[in-house]
Write a structure and sequence with these properties.
The chain is mainly alpha-helical and 361 residues long. It is 71% helix and 0% strand. α2 packs parallel to α9. The radius of gyration is 21 Å and the shape is globular.
Length: 361
C-alpha cells in the first residue's frame, strides 16, 4: 500500500509531542518560572485534537474488523500497562485493585484507543444527521456542565473530543485536506503554507501572551481546559453559560492550531519522523512504560535551568521514539499491536454457515 509521507510526518510529529508532553506532566511543577508550563500548554492545545482529526479523516464505515481489532489491542494493553502500573505501586495483581482488569475505566493514555472503538461504532449513525459536526460540538459543550469525573468509559474525553473526530470525517467527505497536497503547484502550496503559518502562529502567540500575563497555576488550568479534563464548575469556577463560551473558544483555538500546523508539515520523508508516524500506535502504547520509569526516577529538578531541562526532555523523548521504532522492537511486538483477528472472525463465520446449513437440512 502506498502511504502518503505527509500524513505520516504529521502523525510522527504528533506522537513525538505525546511523548514529550507526558514527560513534562509532572516535571513542569519542579521548576520555577513558566517555560515548561508554557511548552506543555502549546503542545496540548493541538496535538491530541489533530491526532483525532486525522483519525476521523481516515474513518470509513463498515470496517467492523477494524473495530474488533482496536478493541482487542485495547484490552491487551489495558491489562499489560494497567498491571505494570499496579505492580509499580505495590498493589496485588490478583485482586480488584489491579487497574488493568478495569476494562471500562481506560488507564491513562489508553483512553484514546477505547474512545476510538466507541466512535467507530456510533459514527456511521451520527453522520446521517444534518450538520453532524455542529451537533457533536453542541452536545460536547453541554456535557461540560456534567460533574461526572470518575473515568468510567472515559466519558468526558469520549464526548468532548468527539467533535474533532467528526470534523475530520467531514473534511474527508469534502476532500478539504486535499488542497494541502499539491506538490506540483508550488505557488498554491506556498500560499496554503502561509495561511497555515499565520493560523498556527496566531494561536501560539495568543497562548504565549496568556502565559506571560498569567500565573503558573493559571497556565496549568488553561492546559487542563485544552485536555477537557474538568467540568465547567471546576475549570472556570462557574457553572454558568459563560463556561460554554469559554470552552467554545478552546475548540476554536485547537482547530485553528491543528489545521495550521498541518499546513506547515513537509511532504517529503523525514528521518525518524516519518517512520514514527508509520508506527505511531507502537510509540503511543510503548512510550507509557518509558514515561512511567522517567517519572519514577526523575522525581525533581535534575538540572538547575528549565531551558536545559527542556532540551534534555526533548532529546530523551526522541531517543525513546527511536528505540520503539527500531525494526527489532517492532518485529517482536507486532503480534501484540497488529493483532490479526481475521482467523477468529473467519472461523466464526464458517461455524455460523455450518449451523445455518444444518438447520435447513
Amino acid at each position: 500500500m502506498n502511504r502518503n509521507p505527509w500524513f505520516d510526518n504529521i502523525k510522527g510529529f504528533l506522537v513525538i509531542f505525546v511523548v514529550i508532553g507526558h514527560m513534562l506532566t509532572d516535571l513542569r511543577f519542579d521548576y520555577d518560572g513558566k517555560l515548561l508550563e508554557t511548552v506543555y500548554l502549546i503542545i496540548y492545545s493541538f496535538h491530541m485534537p489533530l491526532f483525532i482529526i486525522l483519525s476521523g479523516y481516515f474513518f470509513r464505515e463498515n470496517k467492523y474488523l477494524r473495530v474488533i481489532q482496536l478493541f482487542a489491542v485495547y484490552c491487551v494493553w489495558q491489562i499489560l500497562i494497567g498491571s505494570w502500573a499496579t505492580f509499580n505501586e505495590g498493589m496485588p495483581l490478583l485482586s480488584g485493585e489491579n487497574i488493568g482488569t478495569h476494562l471500562l475505566r481506560p488507564y491513562w493514555a489508553l483512553w484514546y484507543l477505547f474512545v476510538m472503538v466507541v466512535w467507530y461504532i456510533v459514527t456511521p449513525y451520527v453522520v446521517h444527521l444534518r450538520g453532524y459536526v455542529w451537533f457533536g460540538l453542541a452536545f460536547a459543550l453541554l456535557y461540560g456542565f456534567e460533574l461526572e469525573n470518575t473515568g468510567f468509559l472515559a466519558l468526558r474525553k469520549l464526548i468532548m473530543f468527539y467533535p474533532y473526530f467528526l470534523l475530520g470525517n467531514y473534511l474527508s467527505e469534502h476532500e478539504f485536506i486535499r488542497i494541502f497536497e499539491m506538490p506540483k503547484n508550488f505557488k498554491r502550496r506556498m500560499n496554503v503554507r502561509l495561511i497555515g503559518g499565520l493560523a498556527f502562529a496566531s494561536v501560539v502567540g495568543f497562548l504565549l501572551y496568556e502565559a506571560w500575563r498569567d500565573t503558573p497555576q493559571e497556565i496549568v488550568a488553561l492546559a487542563n481546559a485544552f485536555k477537557h479534563r474538568f467540568p465547567y464548575v471546576v475549570q472556570y469556577d462557574s457553572d454558568a453559560w459563560i463556561g460554554v463560551l469559554k470552552h467554545g473558544v478552546i475548540y476554536f483555538l485547537s482547530i485553528t492550531a491543528s489545521l495550521g500546523f498541518m499546513m506547515l508539515v513537509p511532504m517529503r520523508r523525514l528521518p525518524l519522523v516519518t517512520r514514527a508516524g508509520e508506527l505511531s500506535l507502537y510509540v503511543y502504547l510503548l512510550h507509557v512504560f518509558f514515561v512511567m520509569a522517567w517519572r519514577q526516577y526523575v522525581t525533581e529538578a535534575f538540572v538547575p535551568q528549565p531551558w536545559l531541562a527542556m532540551l534534555i526532555v526533548t532529546g530523551v523523548g526522541l531517543l525513546i521514539v527511536g528505540v520503539i521504532i527500531h525494526p527489532l522492537v517492532v518485529r517482536i511486538l507486532r503480534p501484540l499491536i497488529e493483532i490479526d483477528i481475521r482467523p477468529i472472525v473467519e472461523e466464526r463465520q464458517e461455524f455460523s454457515k455450518r449451523q445455518n446449513l444444518s438447520k435447513k437440512g
